[in-house]
Specification:
Elements (H helix, E strand, L loop, with lengths): L5 H4 L2 H6 L11 H16 L4 H26 L9 H10 L7 H17 L4 H7 L2 H27 L1
Helix pairs in contact: 3-5, 4-5, 4-8, 5-6, 5-8, 6-8, 7-8
């Protein structure tokens, strides 16, 4: 992973794209970004569903902008430091999750599975869509898979 310049590290776009700096982890930045996403999720989960989804949409749009700025500045497609996409993916996975830390752990694990495995159309989006939008979309799709998996598991266990 190339390290972002000092000038980039002082920009708001960098701090948004890097998930408050969690993307600077020297290894497994996506996993660290997903772990960092749990902190704001603790506030998100208290919102009504429409406000939760609106917040996810707003952060998605900010993420597209911020990721695009970092990609252009670093001249690297989907640099490891960009982890705001992990925030969106995990938040989508945990949308309407049943209460309890076992469900949070299950959601975290299924999101990471789909983000790494990249089943269709996640892999297609990862390969075909570029820039900030492409960076965000593949993790949003992995998050939707995670959501369906977690909700299906909750339904089976109900």
């Amino acid at each position: 992973m190339s390290f972002p310049s000092r000038q980039l590290r002082t920009s708001p776009a960098f701090w948004i794209a890097s998930g408050g700096g969690s993307g600077l982890a020297p290894v497994a930045s996506g996993t660290f970004g997903s772990l960092a996403a749990l902190l704001p999720w603790l506030l998100l989960r208290e919102l009504p569903p429409w406000a939760y989804l609106l917040a996810v949409l707003v952060v998605f749009a900010l993420g597209v902008w911020a990721a695009q700025r970092v990609i252009e500045t670093m001249r690297e497609e989907d640099p490891g430091v960009v982890v705001i996409d992990e925030f969106i993916g995990l938040w989508l996975t945990l949308f309407l999750a049943p209460p309890g830390w076992l469900w949070v752990l299950a959601g975290f694990l299924v999101f990471r599975l789909f983000d790494i495995w990249k089943p269709w159309p996640v892999r297609w989006a990862d390969r075909q869509l570029k820039g900030g939008f492409g960076t965000m979309v593949d993790d949003a799709l992995a998050g939707l898979y995670g959501f369906l998996c977690l909700q299906g598991l909750a339904w089976l266990l109900a």
